[in-house]
Amino acid sequence: MKILWMIILLILLSLSAFTQERTETLSLDEAVKIALENNPDLRASGASVDIMKARVRGTESNYYPQIQFRFILPFVERESGIFADQLIWDFWRTPNLVRASKANLKSSEFDREQTREDVILNTKVAYYTALAQRRIVEAMEKAVTQNEKILEQTEGFFKAGRASKIDVTKARVNLGNARLNLITAKNNLEMARIDLAKAMGIKGNFNYELEDMLEYKRVDINLDSAISKALESNPQLKSLRAKEIASKAELAASKDAFYPTIIGRVAYRFEGAGATGPDFIAGIGIRFFLFQGFSRLSELNESRAKLERSRAEIESMEGEIASEVKQLYMNLKFAEESVEVTETSEISAEENSELAQERYRLGTGSALELSEAQSLLASTSANHIQAIYNYKIAIARLERVIGEKIE
Fold first, then answer.
1. CA dihedral of residues 256, 257, 259, 265 (deg, nearest 10)
2. What is the pLDDT of residues 312-348, one digit of tens each?
3. Which of 39, 64, 93, 166 is the residue whose CA sits 20 to 30 A from 251?
4. What is the value of pTM for the model shown?
5. Could you give the count of Cα atoms lying within 13 Å of 24 in the half-sphere of its Cβ?
6. How far apart are CA 392 and CA 399, in angstroms?
7. Which pairing describes strands 208-210 and 261-271: parallel, antiparallel, or unpaired?
8. 211 within 8 A of 145, measured Cβ to Cβ
C-alpha cells in the first residue's frame, strides 16, 4: 500500500512539474506576434488581397489572344477550326479597367494593413487590461489579509474587554466585503485573460504568465503634428483614396465603352461556310454596339456616382480622423492627470492607514476607523494601478491612429 501511495505521489509531482514547465512568461511583443500569426480576421484580409490580385490578372487577360477550338457536326454553314482573337485597340477602355483593378488591389492591401493595426491595438488593450486586473487582485488580496488581521485583533480586544460586540460584527462585515471585492477582481481577471486569448487567436488553455509593465513614463505629443501624421498614414484613409483612383479609372472606362473596338482574328478552318477545305484566314475587324438598352449609359452614371461617393467618404474620413486624434489626445491628458491624482491619493491613504493602525494598536482608535483606512488604501491603490494602465492604453490608441510609436 505504501508503494502504491508513493507511485501516486510521484505521478502528481510529475504532473505538477509538467504544468509549471508549460507556464511561460509572455511579453507584450510576443503576444502581438502570436496574435498576428493566429488572428482569423487578418487571414481573411489576406484572402481578400489574393482575390483582388486574381481580378487584376483577369482584367489584364484582355491584352492576350483569346484562343478557342470549335468542332461542329454537321459542317454545313458552320465553321470548325482553331480561332484566335487579339484586341488591337479599344480607346483606352482596357488600360483604364486594369488601372481600376490595380487601385482596388491597393485598397484591399490598405484594408489588410488596417486589420493588422486593429489586431495589434486589440492585443495591447487586452494585455494591459489583464495586467491591471492582476494588480487589482493583488491589492484586494492584501485588503483581505489586512481585514483578517483586524478581525483577529478585534476579537482579541473583545475578549480583553477593550472592544464591543458591535466592533467585532463590523470587522466581520468588512472582511466579508473585502472577500467579495476579491472574488469580483478575480472574475474580472479571468475575463480579461479570456479577452487576451481571443485577441491572440488562442482557442485552448491560456498557459501564460504576463510580464508586468506597471512603470509609468510620461510622453509629450503635439496635437497639430499628430493630426497631420494621422491624415498622412491612416490605412483606412489610404484605402479610400485608392478607391477614388479606381472610381476615376472606371469612369474613364465607362466613357470609352461608347467607342468601337478594333480586333484582329486569325483562324485555321477545317470546314464551314465559305471554306472549300482546310484553310488559313486572317483579318482585322471593328466592333461597335449601336444600342444596348441604355446599359452603357447606366454604367456611366453608376461610375460617376461611385466617384462622388468616394470623394465624400474621403472628406468624411478626414474629419473623423482629426476628431478622433483630438479625442484621444484629450483622453491621454486626462489619463495623465488621473495618474498624478491617484498617486497622491495613494500616498495619503498609506499615511492614513499607518496612523489608523497605530491608533488602533494603542487603543485610541476603533476597528471601524482602521477598517475604513485599509479599505481606502486598497481602493486608491487599485485606482492608481488602473490609471497607469489606462494611460498606456491611451498611448496605444493614439499610436494606432497616427501610425507611429510615441516616445
1. 110
2. 999 999 999 999 999 999 999 999 999 999 999 988 9
3. 64
4. 0.78
5. 8
6. 10
7. unpaired
8. no
